[in-house]
Amino acid sequence: MRAQLLRFGIVGAAGFVVDASVLYISLHFGTGYYVGRAWSFLLAVWTTWQLNRRFTFSVRDRKNVWREGGKYLMAMSFGGIVNYATYCALIATLPKYWFLPLLSVAAGSVAGLMVNFLIARHWVYKTSH
């Protein structure tokens, strides 16, 4: 389980880069903190799904890829609620410096990490370990 958690964390770091990058691009185009984050979160989930299925949980079954993707999105939504709530709380309460979105995405990611790992390991990929 430690090796999987480490790989999950590495994949999460890649997801963080996607999340923060897409958020800053979205902010540049005027989406605002909340809509921009919703969009960046969805792209980060797609990225982490692709990486986790290959790197963390070594999924070989291609027959049910859309079903798996739906389960993964649903599973990540639980941690995503924790993640987004943390992000929103920081955006709403801290001074609006240029690094606030980055700090808030990072705090949200850490807050949702364990929730997402446990749900992915025990529900989405329960036969893979």
Give an overview of the whole structure.
By secondary structure, the protein is an all-alpha fold. It has one domain. Helices cover 81% and strands 0% of the residues. It is built from 4 helices and no strands. The N and C termini lie close together (8 Å).
**Alpha-beta content class:** mainly alpha
Estimate the helix proportion, in percent.
Answer: over 70%
Give the count of helical stretches.
Answer: 4
CA distance, first residue to last residue: 8 Å
List the domain count as a whole number.
1
Q: Count every beta strand, where a strand is a DSSP E run of 2 or more residues.
A: 0
Morphology = elongated
How much of the residues is beta strand, in percent?
under 5%
Low-confidence runs of at least 5 consecutive residues: none
Taking all Cα atoms into account, the compactness measure Rg is: 15 Å
What's the mean pLDDT score? 88
* Main sheet makeup: none
Which tags fit this structure?
mainly alpha; elongated; 81% helix; 129 residues; 4 helices
